[in-house]
Amino acid sequence: MSLHTTVADQLETAFEKRRGISRLEIRDNLAQIHISQLDGNLADARLEVLKLVADANFSIDFVKLTPSGFSFLVDGSMATQLDDLLKQGGVHFSIAPRQSIVLVTAVNMRDEEGLLARVVSLAIATGAPIAHLADMHDQLLVVTDHDGARTIADRLKQLMEEQLEG
Predict the structure, then answer these.
(1) Which residues have a Cβ under 8 Å from the Cβ of 61 and sit 6 or more positions away?
(2) Of 83, 102, 79, the residue nearest 91 (C-alpha)
(3) 122-152 per-position pLDDT tens digit
């Protein structure tokens, strides 16, 4: 047996995380705000709305640009106050309450061949409404509604069990 084969065949050491999905988390009680139909210079109009929100001390997350505005997530308990603020500001918007984020953690998710595609395909196949996807080197975030988050997480748990068996 060559040295290369011996090293390659060793089991993972205790400090290494297992390949594949290692953790699932659901973050609930969010609302998605979609700002649209902004007039004039789109960049300036976006900044004006963001300044309005910032000046009122709202914390926002998951900002995504859209063709006529942008969207973001806020703590669901703040949605009514934000609704009032945006109405007073004359902003065209919609609010989707009861949103959640499914966080899927896997070591080097982007480098693990096919893993990201498999997770996204699985999430889509559940039929849950997916508002946004975002990825980092070790996480995929899926923004969906409250029920969709549970549906996606349940299916991903099945995938994790299959990983352990295989």
Answers:
(1) 72, 73, 74
(2) 83
(3) 999 999 999 999 988 899 999 999 999 999 9
Q: What are the contacts of 49-56 at 24+ separation with CB within 8 A?
A: 49/86, 49/89, 49/91, 52/85, 52/86, 52/89, 52/91, 53/82, 53/85, 56/81, 56/82, 56/85
Mapped onto helix, strand or coil, the DSSP state of residue 137 is coil
CA distance 76 to 134: 20
- The pLDDT of 45-72, averaged and rounded, is 96
b/e burial code for range 33-67 (CB count within 10 A of at least 16 → b): bbbeebeeeeeebbeebbebbeeeebebebebeee
Distance from C-alpha of 32 to C-alpha of 61, rounded to nearest angstrom: 9
Sign of CA dihedral 104, 108, 114, 116: positive
Amino acid type, 130: I
Scanning the chain, the segments in alpha helix (DSSP H) are: 3-8, 42-55, 79-88, 115-125, 146-165
Pairwise CA distance, residues 77 & 93, whole Å? 17
